[in-house]
Amino acid sequence: MKTAILAAFFFLLAGAIHAQGFKLGVKAGANISGMSGLSFKEGFKFGYHAGVVSEIMFTKKIGIQPEFLFSENRLRTGNDFSNIYTQALPNITNIKLTYLAIPVLFNYKPIKLISVQMGPQFGILLNQTKSLASNAGEAFKARDFSLLTGLQINLPIVRVYGRYAIGLSNLNDIDNQDKWKSTALQVGVVLAL
Predict the structure, then answer these.
(1) In terms of pTM, does the model score above 0.85?
(2) How far, in Å, CA of 100 to CA of 123, rounded?
(3) d(CA 159, CA 125)
(4) CATH 2.40.160.20 given to domain 2-192
(5) Residue 178, CB-side half-sphere exposure with 13 Å CA sphere
(6) Which helix (H) or strand (E) holds 110?
(7) String of DSSP letters for 67-82
(8) 116, β-bridge pairs
C-alpha cells in the first residue's frame, strides 16, 4: 500500500515538472535472467516485465526515467543446490520470482535518437514459486538492489531498449553457505502516451 501511495505521489510530482519536459508511457519486454552462486545453473531463463515509465528531462540532453514494473525472473537450480539444501529445499529445479521493480535511471541523450541510461533499481519480492515457498518459507530475501545500464532508441512513438541489470544484494535468506546475486538482460519496447 505504501508503495502505491509513493508511486502516485511520484507521478503527480513528475506532472508538476511538465514545463521542463515530461512524458509518460507503458512498456513491456523480456527478462533473460540468471542467478550467481554455486546453487544455480549457469545460463539464463526467459521471464517478462511490464509497467509504466515516465521521462523527466531537465535539459534537452539530461533527465531521469523512473519506472514501476512487474518483473518475473525464472531460475534453474544446479546440482549443488540439492546437495547444499537437501533438508530445506528437496527436489527444487525451477524457480519463479515476481518483483515490483522500481528503477530510477539517469538519462543522457548525446543525440535525440539515442538515450544512454544508468541507475539503481529497487525490487520488492511479491511472490516466489509455490513449491519453494511451501518447502522453505522465504528462501529469498524480500528486497533486491541492482544497478542497471543500457541504451534506448527513441523513435517518434515507440522506444526500443536493451539493458543489463546486476544485483548487488545477497538474496539467500536460508543461510550464509552461498551468496545468490541476480543478473538480467532486459529488452523491450515503450509506447509513448
Answers:
(1) no
(2) 6
(3) 27
(4) yes
(5) 19
(6) strand 94-111
(7) EEEEEEEEEEB-HHHH
(8) 108, 151
Amino acid at 127: N
**Residue entry with cell 511490464:** 50
How do residues 157-168 score in pLDDT, each as one tens digit? 899 999 998 886
- Write a three-state SS string for 22-64: EEEEEEEEEEEEEEECCCECCCCEEEEEEEEEEEEECCCCEEE
Mean pLDDT of the chain: 76
Residue with cell 508511486: 7
Sequence letter at residue 31? N
In the chain, the amino acid numbered 96 is K
CA 78 – CA 140 distance, rounded (Å): 16
Residue type, position 55, single letter: E
Q: Residue 62 has which C-alpha cell? A: 539530461
